[in-house]
Every structure is written in C-alpha cells, then in structure tokens.
UniProtKB/TrEMBL annotation:
PANTHER family: EAMA DOMAIN-CONTAINING PROTEIN, OS03G0707200 PROTEIN-RELATED. It comes from Streptomyces asoensis. Pfam families: EamA (PF00892). It comes from the Bacteria. Residues 310-337 are annotated as: Disordered. This is DMT family transporter. It is a multi-pass membrane protein.
Length: 337
C-alpha cells in the first residue's frame, strides 16, 4: 500500500508502516488465490460424474454450520426481502457449482481454471450491454485475445471439438456473470451483511443439491459417496470446505478492512495462473504447444481486460463490476470457492 501524503514528512520508520501493513495483508490474500487455483484439482480428485450433487452436499454441510454460528445475530437481522433475494441468488449459485463441478470432472484442472477466468471478461461486457455503455476498443481487443486463448487451449491435442467439460466450464463462466450482475442490480440485497448473504445463498444452494440427490437416477447419495471415500478423498473434501470456502471468505473480509478492495481483487485475479501451475505440475496436464499458447493468451487477455475495465469504470460502476467470483465480500457477499 503506498504511503499517504500525510506520512511523507514522518520519520522513515513511520512511513514504512502502511506499506508493511499492506504487504502483510497481501500474503493471506495471495494464498487464497493459490488455494482457489488448486481447488479444481482437489474437486477433480474427490468427485466423479456419479457423485457431483452428493459431494457438494457433503462439502457445504461442513461449511454451513460454521457460518450460521458465527453470523447468527446478523442472520436474524435480515429482512424478508433480503432473505428472498439471497435465496434467489443461491439458486444461481447452485447452478454455478453444478456446472463447475461437472465441468472439472470432464476436463483438465488447467482448462477448468483458465476457462472460468473468462468471467473477468464476460462481466464488464454484459454490464455494458445492460447499462447501454460502450466499452473501449482496448477492452474489446483484450476480450478477443481471451476468447482466442480459450479456443487454442481446448485444442492442445489438435483441432477437435471442445470437450463437454470445457463447454460446461464456459457455461459456469456465463452463470457467474449472471450472478454478479443479479447481485449488483437486486435492490433487496443491497446493504445486506456479507456474511449473512453468503450463508443464505449457500443454504439455498445446498437445498438444491439435496433435492437433486433425492431424485431417482441422480447418482450416489451423500452417505454412499462418503462410504466410498478413502483418507485422501476426505482430505480433499476438507480442503475444499475449510480452505477454499471458509478460509477464503474470512481472509477476504479481513483483508478489505486493511487494504483496498481493488488490491484484493488484483491479487485474487492471479487465480488462473495458479490453476494452470497446479494442473501442469501436480496433475501432469500436458496442453501441448497450442494449449500453452492459449493459456498465455487467456492470462494476458483477462489481465489486460481487467486493467482496462478498472481504469475506465466510474465510482458507481466500480461496486458492480469489480472482480467477480466472490473477490470482494464487502460489496458482493458471495462465498469462496
């Protein structure tokens, strides 16, 4: 965090304080980005096509009681419209988690992490259409670069049709865009406490998952899935629940009080870099030379698009377009991965 003008005349030890505090806040936020980047591989390791809703029930059954206990008083303070609005957002969130989890089962962890990063491009594009505002040419160029990168990324083994998992992750990126825009435009949830909003959304999403596993032919039940888990599977599930959701959410809430939301957003925007690194280093993903070129283009395009959008958006739109995917809990109130 840069020194303020008021601190310029202070002794060197005092002027270093804010920067040191900013760097201290940066470290756990960057760790959240690493954790989120690794979440695709973790989800892929504990989930099969037959156990997606069951694993989601198990995962958030660990998270919800903690959120309810911590935020009980604030939950009781929510108004009826806020409960209903958060519940609707939770239905969209359920769709996102389902698309993401089914998607990562059917594609590589590297592809999953990079394709979902297109949300950073889709959200400003969608918001510009809703608001009737023309985006600068630089942003459109960045968006085109990202789309080209995804096209190459999914063709690492030669030019073939994208896999079903790739298309599901693309659908998840679109659904995340819808979620961000809905949250920004729903009057009922504006001003709602972030922790309470997160809890109601996750509760609504878990209700959807529970209904799905109860349907005939929906796959394994949570109990059957849990019975088949070995020690590694349980570790993966706890990692997704404790670190990718609880740890991530509370670190964000801690960090935005000690640094700027934009700084938090920028650090968390490195998530696709870590997703690619983890997929290649630990999962043995080999996207081929076309895939590597595509991965670089996605990262460059999303970073460029983010910087253009942040530079050109006004104070009002800053609250609605700031990094999607739960990156600024003070303004979004959405959960971690």
């Amino acid at each position: 965090m840069p020194d303020s003008p008021a601190s310029a005349a202070a002794p060197p030890a005092s002027s270093a304080g804010p920067s040191a505090l900013g760097r201290l806040a940066d470290l756990p936020v960057l760790l959240v980005a690493v954790v989120w980047g690794s979440s695709y591989l973790a989800a892929k390791g504990v989930t099969t096509a037959d156990t997606v809703p069951a694993v989601l029930v198990l995962r958030f059954a660990v998270v919800l009681p903690v959120l309810v206990i911590v935020g009980w008083r604030r939950l009781r303070a929510l108004s009826g419209p806020q409960w209903r609005g958060a519940g609707v957002l939770g239905l969209i969130l359920a769709g996102i988690f389902l698309l993401e989890t089914y998607g990562v089962v059917h594609t590589s962890a590297t592809n999953a992490g990079l394709i979902i990063s297109l949300t950073m491009v889709f959200t400003p594009l969608a918001e510009s259409r809703v608001r009737g505002v023309r985006l600068p040419g630089a942003f459109m160029a960045a968006a085109g670069l990202s789309v080209l990168g995804v096209a190459l990324l999914t063709q690492g083994a030669g030019f073939t049709a994208p896999s079903g998992g790739d298309l599901l992750m693309l659908g998840a990126a679109v659904a995340r865009t819808v979620h961000v825009l809905a949250m920004a435009r729903m009057d009922s949830v504006r001003g709602a406490d972030a922790l309470s909003l997160t809890t109601v959304q996750l509760g609504s999403a878990v209700a959807v998952f529970a209904v799905l596993v109860a349907l005939p032919g929906a796959g394994a039940s949570p109990w059957a899935a849990a019975a088949d888990f070995d020690g590694g599977d349980w570790l993966g599930l706890v990692y997704l629940s404790v670190f990718c959701t609880l740890f991530a959410f509370f670190v964000q809430m801690w960090a935005v009080r000690r640094t700027s939301p934009s700084r938090v957003s920028l650090l968390l925007g490195t998530e696709p870099v870590w997703a690619a690194a983890v997929g290649i280093a630990l999962a043995g993903d080999r996207p081929g030379w076309l895939g590597f070129v595509g991965a670089v283009l996605v990262l460059l395009g999303t970073a460029w698009g983010r910087s253009v959008a942040d530079r050109d958006k006004g104070p009002e739109s800053a609250q609605t377009t700031r990094t999607p995917r739960r990156h600024t809990p003070e303004t979004s109130g959405t959960p971690g991965r």
